[in-house]
Amino acid sequence: MNSSVAFFKGKFVPYENANLHITTHALHYGTSVFEGIRGNWNEDKKTLFVFRMKEHYDRLLEGCSMLMLDIPYTSEELCKITLELIEKNNFKEDIYIRPLAYKSEELVANLKLQDLASDFALVAVPFGLYIDSNRAINCCTSSWRRIEDTMIPTRCKIGGHYVNSILAKTEATLSGFDEAIFLTQDGYVSEGAGENLFLIKNNTIIIPPVSANNLSGITRDSVIKLATEELNLTVIEQNIRRSEIYLADELFLTGTAAHVTAVGSLDNRKIGSGDVGPITKSIQELYFDCVTGNKSKYINWCTAANLKKV
Ligand code: PMP
Questions:
Q1: Are residues 177 and 252 both part of a single domain?
Q2: Pocket of ligand 1 contains residue 215 by CB under 6 Å
Q3: Closest among 251, 254, 241, 243 to 271, alpha carbons compared
């Protein structure tokens, strides 16, 4: 079911009226920046907790600056619009919030960013699991390499560069895998098609640096904090080779949609036990408590949406 209200061209409108013209620049050239934010329903507290909303909008605005998308809102104003949208739709279940800033100019054949109109739209929809994070998933190394920051900035969620992720995910799932792992042009591990990657070896967590062309993930940042502060683990950022994954004790992926998902195999080679490993399990539980507003120490990561009383 879709939400009944969207935010479009500066106002709240019925969801089915949030439509663009076929000549819109972003549709032809991928000149958009988007976010994925989760709202998690806590049945005991009868509250919808939006996770790290401000950080998502800060990243959106960084992307806007990169793509010369002038939208007339601050992060704080975008948070306010989002809470109003949730309230208008009165969600009482897990949701996925999709803000989109885009080049809205309606014309064809214009290969530049300057002097073109920009706009912002927002929808939210009920959303359950993106990947089955209750089990360890099976991944393959993609035959597609991760795009380089020298081609399109990879640290922002730019619409056009998701063709890269979509090619990889399509190849992986058509071949019977759950997800694809990208390598950089230099053969270092970059990330999943829509997730950051964490490797565990001898009780130490190793993650690829953002300079390996991955997105500076908000779940990645949250998990680094939880692993170091709550589990006393060391997290090292360093380049990782594909063969290191085969020999890892545990591997997991992180993302707003994917949460913390264990990886049981890469290219049909079992990783560790092939199941959800003990450290991954502890991090999954901690993360889930945080996103559902059940961990008071990290409650400032959550914004409680003010829903109508039933
Ligand atoms: N990498 C890519 C390519 C992604 O699309 C995402 C999802 N936004 C992530 C990593 C994880 O980022 P986050 O934790 O901020 O959702």
A1: yes
A2: yes
A3: 251
